Amino acid sequence: MEPTEIRVVVDNYHRRLNNVSLSFKRYLYSQIDWDVRMIGIKGARGVGKTTMLLQHILDNYKDVDQTLFVSLDDLWFSNHSLVELVEWASQHGIQRLYLDEVHRYPQWQLTLKNIYDNYPDMAIVYTGSSLLSIDYAVADLSRRQTLYTLHGMSFREYLEYENTLSLSPLALDDLLKNHVEYAMQITRDIKVLPLFEAYLEHGYYPFYKESASDYLDRLKWTAQIAIDVDLPAVEDVSYATLLKVKRLLSLISEMVPFVPNMASLWQELDTNNTLGLKMLYALDRARILSLVSSKMKSYKHLSKPDKIFLNNTNLMYALCSKVDRGTERETFFQNQLSVGHEISIPSQGDALVDGRCLFEIGGKNKTFEQIKDLPDSYLAVADTEIGHANRIPLWMFGMLY
């Protein structure tokens, strides 16, 4: 490969690095075992995957040209292959590559497997869409890589990102037992409720800082790109199906939390149950919707969800014509607890966490009436700074990661 051919890749890499700050790192950064030879990081658009890769380069390379970052949706790859790039890097003493948007590269799984096997001195860190499903029949990456998922920002991270408060994540059991002590400590330093309201509207995706007044418009556009670009990159879908996916999202956005009547929903979309469920679960994998049921969710065996939410409250403000406060509270709770915990729909109450902790979610006047006398039952209450006993402020469930 001629030096002029690689120059554009290196120049783009340098430009990207030059605009990255190390002042704030996402929660997953410290959890990744960066010494593993192949690392995959999945996540929705806009949650900070690319920034995390560039931060790791700045943190670990005094000479940044000892490694290389490239996005696989770059036009450069219309005339060059990833294997060509790896061969050039190997010849120039580069032993670690950072690959962004891997799902945009044809046959990416097989290509990574071949690179792993044929270049034993080469390590790779890659990012991909949350839609990615690893097909081990195509390439056995299971024993070759460690895979992580990056979620959007928690309320705890938002406070740190705003330089308001720095606090380590709390374990759920610790929070349930000691929430009064933690709430008193936090509210002694800040007015938490106005910050929480701001987070619900614009704090889940880190790019809100660069977007300012057009954040919600950009978020709506981000969701559309996930459907128009990312979904076809990982699934064999027709243009007609993509239109139905967008129509499905539009219908659900106006009805959340949606308790699905599948027959009428599929009739509205002029589709069948099999394709309809595939569309629903694709939007769930894209982190646009959140499907909750009384049983554990499985992407291999698609079953009817009992309730459908938008994935997070920021999407509610971007996609819904009107944000219902009760739905907003439930959406926040399921969004924050779904990181590291299993949430299901119980016969009584709003949410069952890890099969043992029962929650009712509501405003500050919420009572235990609906879950009274049930073991391990709690209230998650809005508009409350400090709770009491099993009555816990809703905002505190944003401190878990």
Low-confidence stretches: none
Mean pLDDT: 92
Care to count the β-strands?
12
In helices, the fraction of residues equals 40-55%
Beta-sheet strand percentage?
Answer: 5-15%
Characterize the largest beta sheet: strand count, sense, and whether it forms a barrel: 5 strands, parallel
Structural class, from helix and strand content?
alpha/beta
Distance between the termini: 45 Å
Helical segment count: 14
- Rounded Rg: 22 Å
Strand order of the largest sheet: 2-3-4-1-5
Shape: globular
Number of self-contained structural domains = 2
Tell me the series of helices and strands, N- to C-terminal: HEHEHEHEEHHHHHHHHEEHHEEEEE
Describe the overall structure.
This protein has helices at residues 3-18, 49-60, 82-91, 108-118, 155-161, 172-187, 192-202, 208-211, 215-234, 239-253, 262-269, 273-285, 313-319, 325-337; strands spanning 38-43, 68-71, 96-100, 123-129, 146-150, 289-292, 307-310, 343-344, 351-353, 357-362, 377-381, 391-393. The chain has 401 residues and is an alpha/beta fold. The chain folds into two domains: 3-150, 3-Layer(aba) Sandwich (Rossmann fold), CATH 3.40.50; 157-398, no CATH class. The strands form three sheets. Strands 2-3-4-1-5 form a five-stranded parallel β-sheet. Strands 8-9-10-11-12 form a five-stranded mixed β-sheet. A hairpin with a 3-residue loop joins strand 9 (351-353) and strand 10 (357-362). The termini are far apart. The relative contact order is 0.11.
Which key terms come to mind for this protein?
14 helices; 401 residues; five-stranded mixed β-sheet; alpha/beta; five-stranded parallel β-sheet; Rossmann fold
